[in-house]
């Protein structure tokens, strides 16, 4: 009877330890996800692309933690795993894939977090009659007004706020949309969303129009290549 009691206590202790370990792993995974959400500069459904920089963390396996860059073929190189396809996946999908590969060979129930630190595909170009033309990184959902604000706003002397054009690639097609920034500012028109690789051009009110000059370029997006 005494032996049975001792065995029962031992089994209960072992079960409690297992539950505690599982809870600790779950809490660690939640903490890593929270850290990724707070530090990641891109939106959740962003698809990783070539030349993106990723930060990879594996809980309690510091030797596997590192910052890597996606190569031109869309792959990353990791110890133990070798080359792993990354391009076209979200950070969450890549996290799951790395965990699956580690668990299949090396690690029991690995907790992997992938954070996109520098996303080439999340950059936009703002040009034309703005105070500071250039290439800017998106840090989350962004509207046209916010995108122009990244370039320190329209040039007060020459900007034509009634003609702001967004050039966008949709699949293999190039789409052009014109917006009235003055009407958006006044709340008469909705503020459209801006996406990675968009090219935004604020026209000028001077005799020489930026957009008229650009219209002679074929294709126009090959000229505005900074955001591509």
Please count the beta strands (DSSP E, at least 2 residues each).
Answer: 12
The assigned structural class equals alpha+beta
Strand order of the largest sheet: 7-6-12-9-10
Count of discrete domains: 2
Quickly name the level 1 CATH class of the largest domain. Alpha Beta
Amount of helix: 25-40%
What is the level-2 CATH architecture name of the largest domain? 2-Layer Sandwich
Radius of gyration: 25 Å
* Main beta sheet: 5 strands, mixed
DSSP helix count? 6
Low-pLDDT residue intervals, each spanning 5 or more residues: 13-41, 216-228
Give, in order, the helices and strands.
HEEEEHEEEEHEEHEEHH
Annotated CATH homologous superfamily of the largest domain:
wza like domain
């Amino acid at each position: 009877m005494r032996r049975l009691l001792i065995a029962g206590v031992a089994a209960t202790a072992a079960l409690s330890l297992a539950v505690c370990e599982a809870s600790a792993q779950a809490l660690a995974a939640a903490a890593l996800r929270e850290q990724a959400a707070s530090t990641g500069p891109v939106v959740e459904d962003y698809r990783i692309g070539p030349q993106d920089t990723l930060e990879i963390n594996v809980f309690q396996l510091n030797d596997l933690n590192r910052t890597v860059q996606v190569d031109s073929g869309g792959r990353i190189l990791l110890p133990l795993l070798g080359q792993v396809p990354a391009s076209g996946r979200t950070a969450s999908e890549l996290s799951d894939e790395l965990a699956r590969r580690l668990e299949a060979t090396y690690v029991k129930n690995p907790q992997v977090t992938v954070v996109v630190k520098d996303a080439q595909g999340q950059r936009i170009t703002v040009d034309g009659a703005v105070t500071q033309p250039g290439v800017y990184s998106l840090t989350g959902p962004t509207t046209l007004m916010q995108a122009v604000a990244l370039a320190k706003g329209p040039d007060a002397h020459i900007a034509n706020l009634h003609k702001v054009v967004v050039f966008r690639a949709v699949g293999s097609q190039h789409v052009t949309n014109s917006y009235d920034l003055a009407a958006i500012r006044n709340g008469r028109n909705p503020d459209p969303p801006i996406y990675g690789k968009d090219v935004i051009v604020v026209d000028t009110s001077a005799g020489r129009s930026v957009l008229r000059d650009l219209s002679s370029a074929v294709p126009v997006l090959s000229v505005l290549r900074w955001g591509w």
